[in-house]
Amino acid sequence: MTLAVGLDLGGTKIAGGLVSPSGSVSATASVPTPADDGPAAIITAAAQLVAAIAGHAREPVAGIGIGAAGVIDPVTGRVIAATSSLRNWAGTALGSDLQAATGLPVACDNDVRVHALGEAWLGAGEGAESMLLIAAGTGIGGAYVTGDGPTIGAHAAAGHFGHIPSPEAAGLPCTCGRTGHLEVIASGPAILQAYERAATAPTAPGAPTDGRFTYPSTTQDVVRLAAEGDATAAEAVAAGAGALGRAVAGLVNSLDPSLVVVTGGMADAGPTWWNPLHAAFDDELMDIVRDCPLRPATLGSNAALIGAAKLVFDERARS
Amino acid sequence: MTLAVGLDLGGTKIAGGLVSPSGSVSATASVPTPADDGPAAIITAAAQLVAAIAGHAREPVAGIGIGAAGVIDPVTGRVIAATSSLRNWAGTALGSDLQAATGLPVACDNDVRVHALGEAWLGAGEGAESMLLIAAGTGIGGAYVTGDGPTIGAHAAAGHFGHIPSPEAAGLPCTCGRTGHLEVIASGPAILQAYERAATAPTAPGAPTDGRFTYPSTTQDVVRLAAEGDATAAEAVAAGAGALGRAVAGLVNSLDPSLVVVTGGMADAGPTWWNPLHAAFDDELMDIVRDCPLRPATLGSNAALIGAAKLVFDERARS
């Protein structure tokens, strides 16, 4: 048996573990991402984590699979584009630099696609011919996975589902520079902002009038308020979930996947979020695809490690 | 060399031709579709057309490829669902019935996917890794084509791009029974209806007031009026083209295809339609995919014959 090290490299931490060819995970560990220290420091931290994890291996380690933040080209192993959460990350030769630092072969892709690959292999999508993974959290992203793995795209940019025009987001400025995209109504920060817009409107029922009201400062606060019955909060959560459900249904009408799997921070928000998501999704599906399941992911944070390791096993199977 | 007969089976006619392994088309012919006479009559008409076409072949005919109206399962060769344009068409064992009637192996898929396969092989998408084909005419449909061919989907329903929620279509009833889908603002009939809604509104500039105005009765009339400078007509055309451009850009942000190819009746509408299509498409693309080309199809009606024949050649290559 040969093992792989699976890594999940995000803006705040690098997580990793040993993954067996059957997908069992052991020796998990993580380190903070030195996000402000530049790519070389990040590669060094990742290599040290790999060494610590690989030290637990009782079988040979065939390689490292890594899912990383940013737009990653899995063929060249380079970071094509990235947000500012990792300083100077765009342009990093992630694959070859990590290979040089560890002496192990490296396979990489972006974090969401690797997460999707894990769920498709051994999670909520196990056995399905095709799967649409939706990651709803700080942003809205995802992956369309078939028997050939996640769709990568001509610019390695496939999966930017947050940038579908959304009727509910009309006129709102998007993180990408356009307006009216799904992400600005359905992401976690967007739900907080929708609450803030409504709660500060002069006639809003939840508007603070006596100075003793404490504003929610996080999306989790808004979700909690909604669960407690606050109408303004419930509307903000439902608006985001509804917009997401409708857009995802449009993707299902377009691609007819075997199922949709939902992950990310919003997937933990409970029925206040899931109920309007399901309702909007069901409302928009054409008859012929209306039995398409919409389910939560099942592997949690292990999904990315398992999916990243799968990149290594798949590469070995091909060569 | 071995030839294939390519067939395009639509609501009004069955077209066909001999196709060589390099994609050259000869001996084209067509017959009216006996749409009201039931599936057996349609299969008989198709088989007679095949016999007439195959009579011109100077090389062996390996099989028949057919792209047909309706939701077609390419694996079973059955018609899963269909509109009323072909009576009792749903449930027809298209593949095996045509094989029995002709003695030739039959490969089938729906007309739009076969059209897309032709364009991907030898048309506007030649050499591209992936292609999104948009067919804009009586309805809005299409196909997402990769190296493995067109995406089929779990219910053979992939490509129903007309059923993406569209901000511009909010509240309008869709052919699928829902409301607010792209098709009801962007299809040819939808553009005619948008013109009618605007022209009959009391304050519309194009409203007939003197009894001598002749209403446009077809989408082509509206397109012609728009090209002649009629503002109401131009707005109806631009609304449909703009909604389509935005929805297609959302698909490009989601799937990152190498290019988008546009076909169908609306693709012949000239700059009155193409200009707002391009403008809306360009407006919605994220920076990373903004060089994605949007181009007209190049093979005309031969695309379906070529794509249908490709199904036969691909099947032979696999076996």
What features would you describe in this structure?
- The structure is a homodimer of 319-residue chains.
- Chain A is α/β, with parallel strands linked by helices and 319 residues long.
- Chain A folds into 2 domains: 3-121 and 300-318, Nucleotidyltransferase, domain 5 (2-Layer Sandwich), CATH 3.30.420.40; 130-296, Nucleotidyltransferase, domain 5 (2-Layer Sandwich).
- Chain A has 9 helices and 12 strands.
- In chain A, a hairpin with a 3-residue loop joins strand 1 and strand 2.
- In chain A, helix 5 packs across helix 7 and helix 6 (219-227) packs across helix 7.
- At the A-B interface, helix 7 of A face helix 7 of B.
- Chains A, B: Keywords: Kinase, Transferase.
- Chains A, B: Belongs to the ROK (NagC/XylR) family.
- Chains A, B: It comes from Spelaeicoccus albus.
Number of strands of chain A: 12
Unreliable sequence segments of chain A: none
Average of per-residue pLDDT values of chain A: 94
| Domain unit count of chain A | 2
Tell me about the largest β-sheet of chain A.
5 strands, mixed
Protein name (chains A, B): Glucokinase
EC number (chains A, B): 2.7.1.2
GO molecular function, one term (chains A, B): glucokinase activity
Keywords (chains A, B): Kinase, Transferase
